[in-house]
# Entry
Amino acid sequence: HDNGITASHLLFGGKQAVVDKAAGLFTVLLIARGSAEPLVESVAPKVLDGVYVAPAAVAQVIERRNKPVKSANVSTARVVVCVGRGVDGREQLDHCCALAQAMGGVVGCSRPVTEGSGALMPGEEYIGSTGIAIKPDVYIGVGVSGQTQHTMGMIDSKRVVVINKNSDAPFFRKCDYGIVGNMDDIVPAITAALMGAKNS
# Structure
């Protein structure tokens, strides 16, 4: 049954856009957080009666853990300091947090920062084509290489600043301002300059 619903989405890490048309009676659309503006008017959903089927196996609760409460919403922040694979360890992450605080912003990350046993940030924070999409006024990438999978999540940022010790990082070809150097020197220096300007 043709319900007339169409949706566009990206393939191959954002290199190709396609438009699909719904062909079934029921359609489920998944929209990445931050990728679209909310509707002004909401439509009341249609509730269908279903038949409950008891599961074959009963789940057993072994342990309960409270999910950490996030202090800020990365997808709606006006300033985002994004940490990438080049940020190595808690001390460097703290430098980035201090920079974000000095700018009145929040900290986000690329996907590699959320993976593995040494993950610095929780998985739901990462920015990219399979993560969240952001549209800040200022985006600062620290130690982020700038692969397409990540940049598709921040492509609508108004100003993009990149800090990376690798001058060949792809991100330098996509940013408004680029700084080549060691983040251990650059990030604290920028933070100190911002704090000094606020106190003067």
Observations:
- The two ends are 67 Å apart (CA to CA).
- The first helix runs from residue 90 to 102.
- Residues 32 and 132 are 6 Å apart (CA to CA).
- The beta strands are 6-11, 16-21, 79-83, 106-109, 138-142, 159-164, 177-180.
